[in-house]
Design a protein that fits this description.
heterodimer, A: MetI-like fold, B: MetI-like fold, 11 helices, 80% helix, globular
């Protein structure tokens, strides 16, 4: 029904309007000392984007994030599939991965800094370890819950392990794996930004931390706004694909 | 089950041994990481000499406050929200995108608004956890069987009585899941904030030790945080499994 399809869009619009209203009211209460209004934030973001200092930071963040995401996806899929194909390994490692998932990984960041040194590699490693675990866990669950008949058919056809993964396991598990990738995307972004907020010289996270010491509310508001819009925008897109895949 | 246990122990022991060998062989240098047995020695010394106990106390207090706030507010909001279909529909996109947003990016803003202190840290820990609690409670309330609700109506329970005596008890396993999530997020939020910018706490001390190449402090503190969060998570998971097993759902 057309009406039903338009409903989520209407809800999203009401939600965005509500959040903007909340922001504006908070601004009116707190005042110019610590907050900027939505309009001022967007205006300043536009101004910031026309300066030369902004783009190298954005580029650095995006590069770190992209590399981290690729590593997280490749390693996550690899770990997920290998654990799923070996029953005992999967049973043993799954709870350990879950425990690792809930650990405050930020405490591990100094170790990464000591291993990789200050610079982009530590950030990439930090972003990647945030993303690997959810991708691996979702892949593991997805492959395990594939109907046994599909696997048996593959075995009857004497598929090699590679052919089995490529033409049976992967296609059957795609919707769940995609959910994992979506979560992995978000967590990798969070990890990368978080890494930049500590002992970093470049990137959007650094820009945020630097703005605190300069007490530059404009920069804080507009960079936070940019990060939120980017994260929420991409996630909404991925969520739409995710839901379509699950409906198949 | 036994084989799984042996496998897990083997993985952990193997990993530690590998680190030990790499450290002793000099592949990993001392500035990067002391050998595991030295970390363990420093860890024991830290506990015996009660070093950093005041920081540990500050962090634990903040984690507990953030956890309690996220859990209470989350359960209340979830329970109330469950009755309002439209409000739920409108908030649904927020719930779906919430965990994609880097909440830590708000930390600088909170510092500017509330000043550098416990406030911003508590707020980050609270914000990270509260939505997970709401979503879990809504999920649990959706699964309350109609027969229970009808029984409540036949007995003419008020809305409050129905919630307290029928629906919330039914949702006990979900409450536990929610508590587990809220606790994990409180840990991440508080320690992460301390780590980024703070004046005290375990995260702050780790950051401070890092800048001073003080590995004898940094590694034992990291180990302590990992052990505490894994222990708390394991405890709640076991309880959760027990509850589900009693219901025959697993």
């Amino acid at each position: 029904m057309a009406n039903d399809e338009r409903k989520p869009l209407r809800n999203t619009l009401i939600l965005i309007a509500g959040l903007l209203l909340f922001w504006e009211i908070a601004y009116l209460i707190v005042g110019e000392v610590a907050l900027r209004s939505p309009l001022e934030t967007v205006t300043f973001l536009g101004k910031l984007m026309r300066t030369d200092i902004f783009w190298p930071h954005l580029a650095e963040s995006m590069r770190a994030f992209a590399v981290a995401l690729v590593i997280a996806i490749v390693l996550g899929l690899l770990i997920g599939f290998s654990l799923a194909l070996h029953r005992l390994s999967g049973d043993a490692m799954e709870p350990m991965l879950v425990a690792l998932y809930s650990v405050p990984k930020i405490t591990l960041y100094p170790i990464l800094l000591l291993v990789f040194g200050l610079g982009i590699s530590a950030k990439i490693a930090f972003g990647a370890i945030h993303g690997i675990i959810p991708v691996a866990l979702f892949t593991l669950t997805a492959v395990r819950s594939i109907k046994p008949i599909l696997v048996k058919t593959g075995r009857v056809l004497k598929l090699s392990p590679v052919a089995m993964v490529r033409s049976v396991l992967f296609p059957a598990a795609v919707p769940e794996i995609f959910t994992g990738l979506r979560v992995g995307f978000s967590l990798t972004l969070i990890g990368t930004v978080l890494g930049e907020m500590f002992a970093s010289q470049h990137g959007l996270g650094y820009l945020l931390m630097n703005a605190i010491s300069l007490y530059n509310v404009d920069v804080i508001m507009s960079v936070t706004f940019l990060l939120v819009v980017f994260a929420a925008g991409v996630n909404t897109m991925l969520l739409a694909i995710d839901r379509r895949l699950h409906r198949r | 089950m036994r084989a799984v246990r042996i496998y897990q122990v083997a993985v952990i022991v193997g990993f530690v041994l590998l680190l030990e060998v790499l450290c002793l062989a000099g592949v990993i240098d001392k500035i990067t990481m002391p050998a595991p047995h030295i970390i363990l020695r420093d860890f024991v010394l830290m506990i015996v000499h009660r070093r950093y106990f005041s920081d540990i106390a500050i962090t634990m207090t903040n984690v507990l406050i953030a956890f309690a706030a996220a859990f209470t507010v989350g359960v209340l909001t979830g329970t109330i929200l469950h009755g309002y279909r439209t409000a739920r529909d409108v908030l649904d996109p927020l719930f779906a995108t919430y965990y994609a947003i880097p909440v830590f990016a708000f930390y600088p803003l909170f510092i500017v608004i509330f000043g550098l202190g416990d406030g911003p840290q508590l707020l980050i820990g609270f914000l990270l956890g509260v939505v997970a609690v709401i979503v879990t409670i809504l999920n649990g309330l959706d699964r309350v069987p109609t027969v229970l609700k009808k029984t409540a109506r036949i007995n003419r329970l008020t809305a409050l009585q129905t919630t307290m005596q029928v629906t919330l008890p039914f949702c006990a396993p979900y409450l536990l899941t929610a508590a587990k999530l809220a606790l994990a997020y409180a840990f991440i939020g508080v320690i992460g904030s301390e780590f980024i910018l703070a004046r005290s706490g375990m995260g702050y001390e780790i950051g401070f030790a890092y800048t001073n190449f003080d590995n004898a402090t940094m590694y034992p503190l990291i180990l302590l945080i990992l052990l505490m969060s894994i222990f708390a998570n394991g405890l709640l998971s076991r309880w959760e499994k027990l509850l589900l097993a009693r219901r025959g759902q697993h």
